[in-house]
Amino acid sequence: MELNNHELVPEHRFKHIRYEEKPVLMRDGKEAPGLHQVWISLDNEKQLNSYTTEAVKDVILAFRRASMDRRAVAVVFTAVGNKAFCTGGNTAEYATYYANRPLEYGQYMRLFNDMVTGILLCDKPVICRVNGMRIAGGQEIGMACDFTVAGDHARFGQAGPVHGSAPDGGATDFLHLYVGVARAAESLSLCEPWSAHRAMAYGLINDLVPVYKDKAGNYAPNPMIVTDKQTDATGRYVYGEFKTGKDAEKGKAELELLTVDLGNLDTAVNKLVTKLMYTFPDCTRRTLESLRRKKLEQWFANMEQSRSWLSLNQNTEGAAGFPAFHFGDRNEREIDFVKLRTRLAEGARFDDKLVEEVLPPSARARWLEARGGKK
Q1: Residue 4 domain-assigned?
Q2: Are 334 and 269 in the same domain?
Q3: 8 Å CB contact between 334 and 362
């Protein structure tokens, strides 16, 4: 029998992401005949898998296709490489095109909102396979997924208030549902990343696996993370935190002797997909729909006003923060916050003159050049 195709754009070919069908393993390790899992992978490794406008469009259509796929057991949302799942929106686009163009950014955010909604409404269970950093918008689209499996090299967090935005693309809606209000406030405001171990302890992710291998081919723990029951000088529990000082220097030296192998991560993802296969599909869908309702209530209540605010912010703090990050040197990507707060307290207008004043020196000349040398 020929079945109807319910995709919006059946003929669409993905150019900015990868869309793959992969086997699903049965309990005996053999491939399940006639079934598969769908992998949707961000494909911008050079820019840490940040999503461009065109990539967002592809992700929307990819989740729609996977949702309509009768033979798909689950969707795995991931990215290429081993450094990042996603670091959010593409800062090159933000700094050179969307800054000072609120109407354009509003249209872009319409697409972004559709991407998050598409994940939340997918008819299949959605697993976020975290192959590296899950930061900013990457954290937001990751939290829209049902499950998260991460390598122990991953880190999780936000970047908005430090780089000219607010985490209103889902983080302010979802994070407290995972970790509670107090921890959410800390992460969302201070933008200090959590290790995968800390994310696991807080309940943000479902599974954590080692990905570093030594020269003998054995998996080794991440040497940059405190993984035993240590306390600092004040007696504070520091399990899962990033090492500092001499411990960090020693960890970096150990890291140079290790390689990243994501085989463990893939095995963990495949095991989860196998477990999902051995459930009634409609009962599982209904269960996840009911659970997702808590996220959707928050999301639908806030997404439009968040879109409007984020668009207008492109005329003020976004116009300073994104160029600072994009044009600044690696270790000089933040504005002069003291000067900004002082000048605003003095009544300064948030215009190009003020932006030029607060940009880091390494970003200022490049920013002016990108604007045609005009102040």
Answers
A1: no
A2: no
A3: no
DSSP label of 132:
S
Tokens of 359: 């940009």
- Domain assignment present for 229: no
Amino acid occupying residue 224 = M
Q: Are residues 21 and 163 in the same domain?
A: yes
Count of the separate structural domains present in the chain:
2
Q: Is 159 exposed, middle or buried (0-12, 13-18, 19+ CB in 10 A)?
A: buried
Contact by Cβ (8 Å): 328, 336: no
Range of the domain at 325: 316-370
Whichever domain contains 201, its CATH number is 3.90.226.10
| CA 356 – CA 359 distance, rounded (Å) | 5
Task: Give the residue from 310, 329, 351 where a domain finishes.
Answer: 310
pTM: predicted TM-score of the whole model, two decimal places: 0.95
Q: For residue 238, is it within any domain?
A: no
Q: Classify residue 81 as left (phi > 0), alpha (psi -120 to 50) or beta.
A: left
Distance (Å) of CA 72 to CA 20, 63, 113, 124, 256: 11, 12, 24, 8, 40
246: in domain: no
Give the pLDDT confidence of 289-337 residue by residue, as tens digits.
999 999 999 999 999 999 999 999 999 999 999 999 999 998 999 999 9
Distance CA(78)–CA(81), nearest Å, equals 10
Mark whether 213 and 329 lie in a shared domain: no
In contact, 310 and 167? CB cutoff 8 Å: no
Q: Angle CA(150)–CA(152)–CA(230) in degrees, nearest 5?
A: 130
In a 3-state reduction of DSSP, which class is residue 79? strand
Cα 1 from chain centroid?
Answer: 41
Q: Which residue has the higher pLDDT, 227 or 273?
A: 273
